[in-house]
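[job 4471] stage=fold_predict status=RUNNING
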Amino acid sequence: MTEEAELTKAMIVNWALAEIGLAPSFSIDQETTLGGVVDMFWPRAIGHCFGLHDWTFCRRTSQLTRQAAKPVTGYRYGFDLPGDKIGQPMKLLSDPRRETPIRDSRIEGRTLFADEETVYAVCKVAVDPQIWDWQWAGAFATAFSSWLAVPLLQDIELAAEKRAEAFGTRSEGGTGGVFGRLIAQDRASGPVGSNLLANEPLTSGRFTGDWHGRW
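[job 4471] inference complete, writing structure tokens
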């Protein structure tokens, strides 16, 4: 991809401005009323849109740092959770290549407690727009325009229209609209899930006939 075609925050904000009929005049170093509005609502939109689904482009597996202090929670170990995660970890694993989750753990604040010596966490993290998926960036611009419509135009109806276009109607539970279609596409493109019992070695033998190599 050429440098001129790279996604930037300014490009996405200007898409959002155009969505609601305003001139696409935002620049990243702009110290204006518009810049202040963008700075106010951008983190809120990021949290909402990233939190809708397990988006692969912002997924990251991290080996957690084990704390030196002995926990008072009864667990053997405490681990630092990533400071830049969005929401709770989607998976906690003792082996990053296996899907078997750690079943006994507790999260308090930014600390994970578990009896495993090593823990990997799969989390969503905020990533630079440069590596966003282009379709996702377009959907985000539509969503972001709904946050801009009221402070910039005092237009509640336009804000509701753009929000419905991005997320669907209330009856769809916020997972319709253009984001709903992206969620469906993302799920369809993923590998077919294995039987839940396949993660248990004794039961798995009944289904596969060859289980010993996996444990």
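[job 4471] summary: The first strand starts at residue 59 and ends at 63.
[job 4471] exit 0
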